[in-house]
Write a structure and sequence with these properties.
Elements: H1 6-11, H2 26-45, H3 49-62, E1 66-67, E2 79-84, E3 88-93, E4 103-109, E5 114-125, E6 128-136, E7 149-156, E8 162-167, H4 185-188, H5 192-195, E9 203-206, H6 218-231, E10 242-247, E11 252-254, E12 260-263, H7 266-280, E13 288-294, H8 311-324, H9 329-337, E14 340-343, E15 347-348, E16 370-373, E17 377-378, H10 389-401, E18 406-408, E19 418-419, H11 423-427, E20 432-437, E21 439-440, E22 448-451, H12 452-468
Parallel strand pairs: 1-2, 4-13, 4-14, 14-20, 15-21, 16-18
Antiparallel strand pairs: 2-3, 3-13, 5-6, 5-10, 6-9, 7-8, 7-10, 11-12, 12-22, 16-20, 17-19
Helix pairs in contact: 2-12, 7-12
């Protein structure tokens, strides 16, 4: 047996993290900043699931991907994508190996915490018009008051015309008002979780009445008149609308050295973007490369656009059929069994202002690389997928061999909190899977922060996985 020297042993310490910036070449610095400039554009153009899918299609087609519906047969090197209800996209690059040897899948989600309009949202109170909302996902409600908000989504008129709304990215914006401190004595004695009630997250949308004696709610009517004249919308049309209220500000560079990205929706669009860039970098892989962007992760991955839907399984079966001419249940099961997945989701970066909730030997640090999470879940690993030792070793070796700087993490102290990802639902298919993504500061806030170096390392990790497993 060959024993290590003391120096070699020291270098193997698992908690001896590397700062990515200290280990980048000049060329890598350039690549990193160019990647993150494109990433900020992606965030600005994709503030909803529908917008993310639309942007992903444009990016994919520029890289030679075709809609799978236009393709009858698939062969090595072909690039295709499949859309599900305008809220999911799956991309594939067909490999040279028999697909029954398994596929390499990277999966991310493109929904983010936000406010959704209720079905009957518009009302008038105190000569102001407001919109009722229902919050989506895990938010701190007080963070959504007194900030500029925008309105994105789709609405159908009575005649069946689809109207796309994107209002607030420039003037005018909207907001949820908050109570002035002079009158907030009772509010400020409440627990933070109760300081703002969900039913009070109402959007201020107008205050100018129509000049008419025949209308009782003059401000509300004026807003309806504006919506009808500009978009052809009536109040009834809100019943079938999907309107999301999101922060109105753009993605920004953060820090004098511009080392961070600050923006809404980085959970999990930072991983969605790097997943896309990863599969775009793949050319003629051995194993078929797949990328999937899904909806509804923030509320349990439910519904026909979440990871619990059959969209992935149906599309994989379609790919098998178009490669082999048919898809037997045995071939499908063999493909799944031999496949592997990186659940591309964010981790919690240690915040210097709130260090007490982290167990720092097992926590991620911003700027120290992509984070690999063997398990997520909460208290006793509840509702988590716990990757096997064999698979953790396999992925770790791929990352090491390809110059990816990475770290490991769990989501806070054992009894402090926790969270889940799509990993458990992929694992339920009988596929190896591990969470692999970018550490985030201020996760689920309207303005989240990531280190550009970690975004870059996430991209490199997905490319390495596609090309080397």
């Amino acid at each position: 047996m060959i024993y290590m020297t003391d120096k070699e042993l020291f270098n193997e310490l698992s908690y001896k993290r590397k700062n990515v910036y200290e280990n980048l070449s000049e060329q890598e610095y350039k690549e990193m900043f160019e990647l993150c400039d494109e990433y900020r554009e992606f965030l600005d153009e994709g503030k909803t699931e529908r917008e993310c899918v639309e942007k992903s299609i444009k990016m994919a087609e520029l890289h030679g991907f075709k809609n799978i519906n236009s393709v009858k047969q698939l062969k090595t090197g072909d690039k295709v994508y499949k859309i599900n209800r305008n809220k999911n996209i799956l991309l594939a690059v067909i490999g040279s190996e028999d697909i029954k040897n398994g596929v390499n899948l990277v999966g991310a989600h493109i929904d983010s915490p936000r406010l959704d309009l209720k079905q009957n949202p518009l009302y008038e109170s105190n000569d102001m018009a407001l919109l009722k909302t229902h919050y989506y996902g895990g938010i701190k409600k007080y963070q959504w008051t007194a900030i500029p908000l925008a309105m994105h989504g789709v609405i159908f008129t009575k005649e069946g015309k689809k109207v796309t709304l994107n209002i607030g990215e420039n003037d005018p914006v909207f907001c949820v008002t908050d109570l002035l401190p002079h009158l907030a004595k009772d509010q400020m004695t409440k627990k933070m979780i109760d300081g703002i009630e969900g039913e009070n997250l109402n959007i201020l949308i107008g205050g100018m009445p129509v000049k008419s004696e025949d209308v009782s709610e003059k401000v509300k009517f004026a807003i309806l008149k504006h919506l009808n004249e500009k978009y052809g919308i009536t109040e009834r049309d809100f019943l079938s609308a999907e309107i999301e209220i999101v922060p109105a500000f753009k993605a920004k560079n953060v820090g004098l050295d511009e080392s961070f990205v600050g923006a809404y929706g980085q959970d999990d669009r930072v991983c969605a973007f790097t997943t896309l860039k990863g599969i775009f970098a793949v050319e003629n892989p051995k194993k078929t490369a797949l990328a999937i962007l899904v909806d509804k992760e923030e509320i349990g991955s439910t519904g026909n656009t979440g990871m619990l839907s059959a969209f992935f399984e149906m599309t994989l079966a379609e790919i098998l059929e178009k490669i082999n001419g048919n898809c037997t249940i045995t071939d499908y099961n063999t493909t799944i069994e031999n496949s592997a997945c990186l659940s591309s989701d964010v981790g919690a970066a240690v915040d210097p202002n709130y260090e007490s909730v982290y167990e720092k030997r097992n926590a991620a640090f911003a700027g120290c690389g992509m984070v690999l999470m063997k398990y997520t879940g909460a208290r006793g690993k509840s509702e988590s997928s716990d990757a096997s030792a064999e698979f953790v070793y396999e992925i770790g070796k791929i990352l090491d061999d390809n110059g990816v700087i990475w770290q490991t993490s769990e989501l806070g102290k054992v009894d402090q909190g926790g969270g889940g990802t799509i990993a458990q639902y992929v694992a339920n298919l009988n596929m190896d899977v591990i969470d692999c993504g970018v550490p985030v500061l201020s996760m689920h806030a309207p303005f989240e922060v990531t280190a550009k170096s970690d975004v870059y390392m996430a991209y490199k990790s997905y490319v390495a996985f596609y090309n080397n497993r």
